[in-house]
Amino acid sequence: MRPSEPAPPELSLFALPKAFEGHIGVIQRNAIQSWTRIEPMPRILLLGDEAGTAELAEELDLIHLPEVAKNERGVPLVSSIFAAAEAESPTAWQCYINSDIILLEDFGRALFALAEALKHEEIGSFLLSAQRGHIDQFDPIDFADPVAAKDFAATVARELVWDHKLAVDLFLFSRGLFDAIPPFALGRGAWDNWLLWKAEARGAAVLDASACFGLVHQVHDYAHTGAGWQGAWSGVDSQGNIQLANGHLRSLDQAATHALTWNGLHEGPAIDRCDRLELARARLRSGLRAWYEGRTEAALDFLREGLVQMHRFLPGAACWAAEAADLAAALPQNLDPETFSHKGQPEKALVDLLQAALCRRFAEALEHGAGTGRKRPLYVWGAGEAGRRAADFLLGRGLSVAGHVDSDPATTGSELQGLAVHPPAVLERAAAGGCKAFVVIASMYAAEIETQLETMGYETELDYTR
Fold first, then answer.
1. Which end of the chain has fewer CB within 10 Å, C or N?
2. In 3D, which of 279, 286, 284 has the Cα closest to residue 348?
């Protein structure tokens, strides 16, 4: 115990690991071993019956609770995990943590700071969390070796890339705070943000401890969803979680009533340390490294996610990540991630490759299915700013653009940068003449335009694309 600080109440730390196989097995073992070095030592509970869980619990002398309810697709339920942990643990403080999160020694010091702060504040129930950061970690870490632990802490200080405060990987809360949790699917979105809302709705203090410690998230792929990155955020279970949340979603920044510091509690959240541009670049770098190492599915997931995150800095980046096949076709097989990263700006090299691949696809589409021996004309549907940018891009890549198409009578008959703006009838005439045009849609009304094109007999990707 530290002489000037009260000892914190005993803490129960609980998690449900995935199977201890491959890379995910390595990083989960790293995380769980880091928890055993926390002072004061918490009661650690490993839940579930995934391969390797019982063996690791026995090896490290941890508590194992194999019985956890799952949904019809075999995904563990958050409600069952929290209920099982609380039923087994009589401790005043409970803490759920994702099984890939490493905790460093500052977490233990923060427990003392929390106990000291609560001694001076009129706070009943509470929920505490902190901002996470990402790091690429592939090798085992021996936290029992002081030199290895110190070296890893130095690596974290040098390389950690902070995430935004929407994703929450740790919930430390006073016993009894969560008496009823909907049957959320673990490992999918929304449930963490619902817990923040629930604590806020119950009048609990929500504490942002990011000024005291951070959560070290070891980057991994999304194989556990069965549908990759998109499965984690837009799959059946993710959509189910969103429905169960019913709009009650909060980020740590939004919900925080206080920031925990080494000098006590202060109103409002802690400072957000996330640099969103660097966060997107870090995901792209992880993808490039995975591609170089032959981890194809992980690489495509990381690259597509990074390009979506890059959208606010690089308009159009999200659409370039739409199809994994296009992305895979654009990447060279002998990729060197260091020379490819353009001095820390991997998005520039990626965009060059993706744009070239996209234009190759357009050029092939112009030749495909002409039927008359004539080359298909290329039109951009959209006469606004997006249409202008699309035409500039195509012309800059050496493609011949026949003109723009627009449904607005006020624009048809005019010119945009020397290209005529036609009504949609020009596409009907092309189809009637036996040589359909190829259409690039560059408009906010893409869904309506697609319907019009399909009515004319145009087929997606074969005859038009966004």
1. N
2. 284
Query: Which tokens is 388 given?
Result: 């202008």
Q: Is 396 helix (H, G, I), strand (E, B) or coil?
A: helix
427, containing H or E segment: helix 425-432
pLDDT at 3: 47
Q: Are residues 141 and 201 in the same domain?
A: yes
Domain final residue pick, 233, 267, 301:
267
- 65 or 310, which is more confident? 65
Structural domains of the chain, count: 3
Same domain, 410 and 433: yes
- Per cent of the chain over pLDDT 90 is 59
Q: Which residue has the higher pLDDT, 446 or 42?
A: 42
Distances (CA, A) of 169 to 57, 166, 279, 292, 424: 21, 10, 17, 29, 51
Per-residue pLDDT band at 311 (split at 50, 70, 90): confident
CA 22, CA 19: separation in Å to the nearest integer?
9
In what order do the strands lie in the sheet containing 403-405? 415-416, 419-422, 403-405, 378-381, 438-441, 464-465
Does residue 318 sit in the same domain as residue 236?
no
Strand ranges across the sheet with 101-102: 101-102, 215-218, 132-135, 161-162
